[in-house]
Amino acid sequence: MINQIITILILSFLVDCWRGYDFNAIIKNTDRFHPYKYSRDLKFKRDVKAAFKNSRHDDEVTRNYFKQIQKLITRRSFAKNEKNETTLIIGAGPVGLLAALEKYVSGEPHIILAEKRNDYERNVWFDLYPEPYSPAFNILYELGFGSQQIEFQSQKMTNGSAITIRCQLLERFLSKILFVLSILDPSLVLLYGFELTSVLFSPRSVVLKSLVDGRILVPFHRLIACDGYNSRTRFLLKIPTKVVDEFTIFNHKVHIKNLHQVSVIVGFKPTNSSSSCPELRADPFNPDSTIDPWMPGFMVNGISSIFKRFYHGHCHMQILLNKVFGEKFLINSHVNVDWVTILQMVNTVMKHPYTNVEQLKRSITTKTDGSLDLVILKSQILKSDDNHYSLGSGSSLTLRGDASANAHFRLGVGVNTAFISYRYHTSQNLSRYLREEYVRKQWEAVVNNMVGTMFLETYCNYVIFMDKGERGDRFDKYEPGKMIVYERDFKNLDYVQVKERQVTKCIREWTQ
Ligand SMILES: Cc1cc2nc3c(=O)[nH]c(=O)nc-3n(C[C@H](O)[C@H](O)[C@H](O)COP(=O)(O)OP(=O)(O)OC[C@H]3O[C@@H](n4cnc5c(N)ncnc54)[C@H](O)[C@@H]3O)c2cc1C
């Protein structure tokens, strides 16, 4: 079956086999890699093969790059090969890319990754957290993502050593590794520009549609849906999702009807031709650094935190509101945005505050429909009942990433969980059963954590920090007590840890 697909692709590519490129630049720089374009370039593929065989590269970066690729191939060769089955992954966002890599190193015999996009151009950012919260950095380094590349298009966050990384940079890096592996090993097939349109039951297969290559039928044994928040796979297989409004904290099982959080996202114009964003205020405790996301909460009543994406001409600010202010915005969102409050919130983090609402409005980007780039977002966590389903006749469906539970409003949850999942799934010390079990439990814990945090922040005005645990490894072995709850000490601009009974009191107020 894989041969059939390869034949179809090769026939359609023959007309399109040569174009000019700078091989070394593409290997060195992730931002030059365009998966669809290069997957159709036969000369480039031949050159990759030749370069891989030629281990004596003059260039150190190229040499190291192929060394990392060789390590992945060696890991695969040690992994136990399973039955001659096909694993089909739908969606090559961060979760799908890591799933394909995981299946490759864990020795699955046939892997197909289908993605409807042709290229990676999403202009958003991912938040990568350090150990012990997430193994993201270590995994990226292991895969050959050099520190220079990380620094190339990323920014350190002010609250520690977390970094935000351009989404397209991470996706291109991971897809390039898979691309090189797929050239060297035909058991991995990448289909860019192919969209899942239907799932058939007899035989178990999916229909993928491409604008250039038409429709193809792909049989599978294991289907892994990584196709994001509005997962088509989930929709076609009629897997329901529901709003998560239950969570456990300090051994209390809590149910809050219609649990949600409201935030305002504002897009600002760059201030000059070099695409600089408006300047941000310095953190009062650390003048070398811009303001801490939680700091504005000390200054304006009603804000739990402000996250800023203020780099490379991408100037977005997300303001998370508490319940009282959130409702005010929600009610007014279509009629009358509360500009005075927005002005006050924005000015708390701007080095040069806007003097009035008109000036603030002029600083906000205009969208193509002529309206201002201002979004009022009501966030709820939507989740499927389970992550794993039998589809009969020995075939199965697994939901991963945002397809399983949307994680977007808690920054970095989706992408860091994908790295944790990759680490467990490729761990040589664990049985396959234990790997599945750990990842499932960990995901449940993360969802509980997201929903609990949302409640405490929005409804109780608390600030939540995570305890690393004594051994520094407890983030992925979640226990409810690990969340540390603080309230703001407005007088001293500090946080004071709250007692369990205060949390219980707040829960009672909202559940009675
Ligand atoms: C508004 C918003 C803001 C966010 N901000 C941040 C942030 O600041 N920091 C952060 O870390 N995270 C943020 N996130 C979360 C982050 O985007 C997700 O956690 C992450 O993208 C989840 O990865 P995923 O691979 O599961 O899904 P996605 O990244 O959505 O990937 C799904 C992939 O599936 C493909 N696909 C979909 N349907 C089909 C189909 N039928 N056939 C084939 N392919 C298909 C899509 O093209 C896509 O490539 C934000 C999310 C949103 C929505």
Describe this structure in words.
The protein is an alpha+beta fold and 512 residues long. The chain folds into two domains: 2-242 and 384-443, FAD/NAD(P)-binding domain (3-Layer(bba) Sandwich); 261-379. A six-stranded mixed β-sheet has the order 6-2-1-10-22-21. A hairpin with a 2-residue loop joins β21 and β22. The longest helix has 29 residues, at 432-460. The termini are far apart.
Layout of helices and strands, plus pairs?
Elements: H1 2-13, H2 23-28, H3 35-39, H4 42-53, H5 60-78, E1 86-90, H6 94-105, E2 110-115, E3 125-128, H7 136-142, H8 147-152, E4 154-156, E5 163-166, H9 167-184, E6 188-192, E7 195-200, E8 205-210, E9 214-219, E10 222-225, H10 232-236, E11 241-243, E12 246-249, E13 252-255, E14 261-267, E15 282-283, E16 286-290, H11 296-299, E17 303-311, E18 314-321, H12 323-332, H13 339-347, H14 357-363, E19 374-379, E20 382-384, E21 388-392, E22 395-399, H15 413-425, H16 432-460, E23 463-466, E24 483-489, E25 494-497, H17 500-511
Parallel strand pairs: 1-2, 1-10, 2-6, 10-22
Antiparallel strand pairs: 3-5, 4-5, 7-8, 8-9, 11-20, 12-13, 14-18, 14-19, 15-16, 17-18, 21-22, 23-24, 24-25
Helix pairs in contact: 6-9, 6-15, 15-16
Bound molecules: flavin-adenine dinucleotide.
Protein name: MICAL2
Signal peptide: 1-20
Keywords: Signal
